[in-house]
Amino acid sequence: MPANFYQRLIDKYEPMTEAAFLVLVSVRQPITSEAIPQKIAEMTNNQLQLGLGTLFTNLHAMTKDYLMTERVDENDVHTYEITGSGESVLAAERKRLQLLNQICEQAGL
Q1: Which SUPFAM superfamilies match (predicted)?
Q2: Separation CA 25–CA 93 (nearest Å)
Q3: Which of 39, 47, 82, 97 could form a Cys-Cys staple with 86, CB 3.0–4.6 A?
Q4: pTM given for the model
């Protein structure tokens, strides 16, 4: 895909909401929609939980924008996995968060 496509996606999602960030990180390996809330709880030491509406809104939007793929098996189990576009958006957000962290450190926060 052309670089400008990736940049348009980065511009659309940056800055990312916490929910979008956590959903995208959680699908870096194939995972079912049912397992995502538990994965996010584990990643955040149970400090953050997503409501089902927030979860499915993000899954739908990011699948539509090609940040992840969705597979549905014969038992109607939905499995999600990040795409190259999703990795690009995640890398841009990581870079932005690193800058914010650097600012906090320099300010003594």
Answers
A1: Winged helix' DNA-binding domain
A2: 11
A3: 82
A4: 0.86
